[in-house]
UniProtKB/TrEMBL annotation:
<feature type="domain" description="2Fe-2S ferredoxin-type">
    <location>
        <begin position="2"/>
        <end position="85"/>
    </location>
</feature>
<protein>
    <submittedName>
        <fullName>Oxidoreductase</fullName>
    </submittedName>
</protein>
Length: 85
């Protein structure tokens, strides 16, 4: 498990090993946008403010990976990531 801080919402959620960042974020922010849930449409892209991301999509460019992630498939490499959400 790892933590995801939703900085603008001032909340932190825990993501279990068997669930996605998207699911954890949606539990707190039901309006969070998503579509394919498989890492190819880009709808769920969010800005990352801090933390190392384990990118598991095949859509984002290296430049985009510098400051964002697809939260339906990608995860944290460490114990915590911070989203601009
Ligand atoms: Fe489509 Fe995440 S919902 S890439």
């Amino acid at each position: 498990p790892f933590e995801v801080e939703l900085r603008r919402s001032n909340r932190t959620v825990t993501v279990p090993a068997d669930s996605s960042v998207l699911a954890a974020v949606r539990a707190e922010l039901p309006g969070t946008l998503y579509s394919c849930e498989q890492g190819f449409c880009g709808t769920c892209q969010q800005r990352v403010l801090d933390g190392e991301v384990d990118h598991r999509d095949e859509l984002l460019t290296d430049a985009e990976r510098g400051d964002s992630m697809l939260i339906c498939v990608s995860r944290a490499l460490g114990e915590r990531i911070v989203l601009d959400s």
